[in-house]
Each structure stands twice: as C-alpha cells, then as structure tokens.
C-alpha cells in the first residue's frame, strides 16, 4: 500500500500506542484523528473471512487498536483504555479527551458477536459510550442489516476496508433500546428437566444466584438466569430450526464456512423439522397451550395477552430485521395504528413488538413485499409463565442464539420476563432500515410519555441491582474452554 494512503488512514483513524497502554505519560500529538476507531473481530466468523479481515485492518491501522476476540476479551480492553484516557486527561493530555469525544467502535462477526460488544459497552456505564458499527460476518446479520451495513459478507481487501472506514466516519449515531431478560426455574433433582449446560445458553444469558427479597420465587432451590438482547426473543418453530442449525454446525464446522451454503442449509432444516409431522411435538402445540403471556403497557400494570389458538411461534421484536432481513411486524396502514392502538415500530421508544406465526407456511408470507406475521401487541414488558402439562421443553432463541429450555415436570413454574433496560448507540448509514422516534423523517409518533421511563418508582434496590448489568463486563466471563467458533 502506498505511503500517501497510509498517511491518510493514520491521521483520520489512527490511535497511538501511548493511548492504548496503561501508565503512559502525556504527549504532544502530531495530529488529532477525526474518527479514531477500535476494531474487534471474531476471527472465526465467516470461515476464512474473519482472519483475513483481521490482517487487513492491522495493515492499515495501528495493529494494537485491532483486537482478535478469540484472544482478547473486549471488557478488559475497553476498561483499560478508558481508565488510561481518564488518567491522561487529568494530566493535561489533549489527545485523550478528543478520542473520548469521537471514538467509534467497529465489530466484525455475527449478531452474537455484535451483541457481546453491545453488552460490554452497556455494562461499563461510560459517560459517553462509543457508537458501534457492525461488519456482517454471520449467517443472519440482522443487526448490520437494520442499520444499513448490509447482510452479505464484506470484501477483506484493503480497498474494501478503506471504504468501510469511510462509511464509519460519515455514519450518524442512532440510539436503540436494549432489553433485559430474567428466567427463573426450580433447580431440578431428577427427570427429563436436567440442569441446563452453561454453553447451551446464549452467551448473554447466565446464572445469577441472588434473588431479590420482593420476588415471589425467592425460595431455596430456584435458579435465576438473566441477560439482555437488542433485536429479538422468540420461541417455537423458528427457534427449533435455528437450534438444529447450530447443533449441526457444532458437529461439522467444516461444512459451514460459506455464507450461501449456511443459508441454504438453514432453509433445508426448516423444511425437514419434525414440528410439522408430529402433533405431539412441542412446536406443534400452540403458544396458548404452552404458556400464559402477560404484557405491561404502563408501569406496574400487567394484563393478560390473548394469544389466538392458531399461533405456534412468537417473536418479541425490537429491530426491523429477523431471520436474515425480514420484518415480521411489517408496516401497518395508519388506520390500523389508530384502530388497534399501535404506534410505529420505533427502535428507541421503549416498546417492543410482539408477533405470532401459525406455521412455517405462514412464515413464508414474509417473502412477499408487504408480508407480516400476526400482530399481537406492543409493550414495554412481557412475561411468559410455563406450568406443568403440555411439553417438557421449549425451543427459544435470543438474537440468533437458540437453546432448548426445559419446562416444568411437577407443580412448578418457569418464568421468562422481558423488560426495557436502557439504550445503546449504533452507527447507521443512509441505507438504515430502523426508524427513530426522534427523527423528523420517521412516521409521526403516537407514543405515550410513560413509555420513556423504564424504571418503576416502586422498584426495590434488589430489583434494580438485578437489572443493573447484562453481565458481559463484570459478572459473566466465558469459560476457558469456550470455543468462539460457536458464537455466531
């Protein structure tokens, strides 16, 4: 690469070593970068593409500002760098505050990798969190697609990387809601409801053993899991197909190194899963048989949500991209908004859209230009209660990561509760599909002011502590044996 191009890249995006290393002394900078970046790459995503992308970014930037997530955990990196920036600023360094004000983060990987970075940033509670741009290296790539970064794997050559950096520099910041999830169940002693293996849960859903004093499930013998998501939580047929795909990829990773092959395999699995053929399979049972669903539209006021008997799969959706770019909520006519009390599906209004599907053929309506699922509700909290009866397990999925959830085998209740948590900052291109309640170009908002306040005034300190973190930064660490290949 030529010297002129190198100099140009360095002055715009480059972060010098002394900023990246703790204990450094202030220095007089030769220039102030207009768009300093930290780059996190899942080198195992996209087959060989992740590794190739890592090499290219390290060739055009300071290699120490480009991190391989297989080797370095982002919570440690960001905690150290922000501590160093704070110390340098206190000692009069002029570059440190400039970087804090303009820092942008690039994360290359699947939706699971991007969610991991967002969780870390959320947990660090930074006064000015850096906005995030996502490079699509996964199979679904719903997060990148929602904000205009595309869903096809990118080029890894120098020119492609330079073009992406230019887009990052020109991208606008956009807030999106984040969603907290708590799952509680009795610790099983025997039977088919075996304890869940840690690696079978999504990376952001993990054990949290202390239950608040105000919780009715606060008794000996209960497990509590908590975490967060940005795009969707679903249960039923889509989660089962995804689970089959991930299980197959775990057994035969060598067969899943091409995005088109991955997508083709995913479709084939969708056509062969047993939920269509067996009336006794959990996914063949309707949602109303499996769980009681409650929603909260105003703080502290739960109400039952009537689920039509035909609904066999349910999606709680925050962004307008699901299963590789489809929008299950669609775009209702303004009259439907008025008649059913819906608001436009903004990504930063504290509301989540709840959509149902009858079967896989109903899901095919998403292929039509204006296709959508059955719109059930919008709410700022959702609660699912599972009791003994219909099935011994349920397939669930959160931001692309599926798991097989045991259900009660005795007089017990498994509870999954989703509530608004806060917001993170994304970077969006002009091709962004997401809409903001604060954007004048978006449809007119009908939102109630109460939706903007996600904290109940009557919430106890224990409750708030339980919701304070997603856990990616301090509370949760990947086990040493965790293979990042399985993180989409």
TrEMBL record:
Catalytic function, reaction form: a 1,2-diacyl-sn-glycerol + ATP = a 1,2-diacyl-sn-glycero-3-phosphate + ADP + H(+)
Top-level EC class as recorded in UniProt: transferase
EC number(s) reported in the record: 2.7.1.107
Domain of life: Eukaryota
Ranges of Acidic residues composition bias in the record: 447-464
PANTHER family from the UniProt entry: DIACYLGLYCEROL KINASE
Subunit details: Monomer.
Role: Phosphorylates the second messenger diacylglycerol (DAG) to generate phosphatidic acid (PA), another important signaling molecule. PA is required for plant development and responses to abiotic stress and pathogen attack. May be involved in the accumulation of PA during cold stress.
Identification of the protein by name: Diacylglycerol kinase
Organism of provenance: Theobroma cacao (Cacao)
